[in-house]
Amino acid sequence: MNEAELLEAGRRGDEDAFGRLVAPYRSELHAHCYRMLGSIHDADDALQDALFGAWRGLANFEGRSSLRTWLYRITTNACLRFQAKRPRRVLSADYGPAIPPDGDLGEPVTGPVWLEAYPDDELSSAAPEARYELRESVELAFVAALQHLPANQRAVLILREVLGFSAAEVAGSLGTSVASVNSALQRARRTVHERVPARTQQATLRALGDEAERAFVDAIVAAWERADVDTVLGMLARDVRFTMPPLPAWFDGRDDVGVFLRERVFATPWRMAPTRANGQLALLCYQGDGNGGFDLAALNVLTLDEHTRITEITAFCDPAVVARFGRAQGSGGPR
């Protein structure tokens, strides 16, 4: 059945037809929820709420806009309702200052505080030509910058600049005027421009190329697994950051990161499995359990500069976040 036939069947109460009708949009709608909320778990809930609302309202969909536009309108408003009940998500540098390498790591800060990682697998059902754009729009720096915007500005920027909706379509979705949309967009652009690097990770990885990327990943995996601090440090930028949400502690600069790696991280053995998160290189980190086994402990998302130096290691340590990547990895665990 084509979209029109699925729509008609859905209006008659056919749940299977409704599922097939919205299936082509699920990946991009889920990514939209993540950009809005900074949390994959909140994105799950918001999308579920949005699709339930779409199912209930399908009989009233008159086709004055495209189905995609209508679904984004419902999903955006679901995200705005969620956002009204939650604080904005942050990365470690926005939560507090760096600590010295021998400082107290502190207790995990729980609750809806931290920006969460986003599995590239969530984008797998998107059209191939859209995947690069989707990955670029969920990079950590961009999503973190979005969280500094008021919710309405965040929605406007995403709908206009990421998704390409017209000002009139956005105004209709948000129940406001075109003039208000344009004003919010200008303010949002200024804030985000101040907080994102000039070059995206997608551009950096494309310039690096597949073969050099594989060699880079193989090199850091090998060095990490043999606890070769000097080699790891040689792959880091001088101003590298090492963060560990939900722990509040983070380290600033290659010297301090080096002490932390040498004296704390490599006090136990590790096995690493390459993966992808937020459109970026990432490593699933399995820590030795003292009995010859390895347990999944962290997800290290890597941010690279144009010289293929690591400028940030975001080590997500929240078990709920890490477990999602472990399930996606399946049999690709520690070797």
UniProtKB/TrEMBL annotation:
- Signal peptide (from-to): none
Q: Per the record's keyword annotation, is Nucleotide-binding included, yes or no?
A: no
Q: Known SUPFAM superfamilies for this protein?
A: NTF2-like, Sigma2 domain of RNA polymerase sigma factors, Sigma3 and sigma4 domains of RNA polymerase sigma factors
Lineage, top ranks? Bacteria, Bacillati, Actinomycetota, Actinomycetes, Streptosporangiales
Q: How does it assemble?
A: Interacts transiently with the RNA polymerase catalytic core formed by RpoA, RpoB, RpoC and RpoZ (2 alpha, 1 beta, 1 beta' and 1 omega subunit) to form the RNA polymerase holoenzyme that can initiate transcription.
**Where does the RNA polymerase sigma factor 70 region 4 type domain start and stop, copy by copy?**
141-191
Q: Which family does it belong to?
A: Belongs to the sigma-70 factor family. ECF subfamily.
Cell membrane as a keyword? no
Can you say what this protein is called?
Sigma-70 family RNA polymerase sigma factor
A Pfam family annotated for this UniProt entry:
Sigma70_r4_2
NCBIfam families attached to this UniProt entry: PRK08241.1, sigma70-ECF, SigX5
Organism from which the protein derives: Actinomadura fulvescens
Report the residue ranges that make up the RNA polymerase sigma-70 region domain in this protein: 21-86
Q: Which UniProt keywords apply?
A: Sigma factor, Transcription, Transcription regulation
